[in-house]
Design goal:
The complex is a heterodimer. Chain A is mainly beta. Chain A is built from no helices and 11 strands. The mean pLDDT of chain A is about 95. The chains are: A mainly beta, B mainly beta.
Chain lengths: ~110, ~110
Amino acid sequence: SQQGEEDPQALSIQEGENATMNCSYKTSINNLQWYRQNSGRGLVHLILIRSNEREKHSGRLRVTLDTSKKSSSLLITASRAADTASYFCATGFTGGGNKLTFGTGTQLKVEL
Amino acid sequence: KAGVTQTPRYLIKTRGQQVTLSCSPISGHRSVSWYQQTPGQGLQFLFEYFSETQRNKGNFPGRFSGRQFSNSRSEMNVSTLELGDSALYLCASSLSELRGEAFFGQGTRLTVV
């Protein structure tokens, strides 16, 4: 079963707007990662945040992590049509090797 | 550096048959994990191999098995296929547990008819 939920399930915005996706998880984690998937293809790693970090940036991406609330958010600023994809959060656990538990995903559509 | 390569990309099998999927990780990566993705269950972890040993296993029946070779290439086998095994099977390679990032292949789309 999946570790957590993401919301919204689907998000439609205009190009240039910001997109925010949220992820909640259930148990203690070692790290939380965000991935992008285009139309049933492979997953692309976007960013990783460790349990002792609160915020991380990479280009137009900003990720926050609140371990007390067991939640994370992904912000994509100045969205482009090419950002249209499904976005998944995934959690890793201490002692879990490289096993990742994925959330349900958010489908983002960026319209011109 | 070449990415993760999965073969074949598409596969159609008949119920009751068996299938073997292959994954070649990024050079130098010793960890290979397998995931199943379906519309109903989402992305689910199957198993992880590290240095030829299964390190973690998900909650799947024994029909799903895997192995890893000394060159880190991995295979996944599903025996006695069921219609519900139709899915996108994704392989991920990782450098180390400390790093954490997983790099995914394009997947094998398995259809069971």
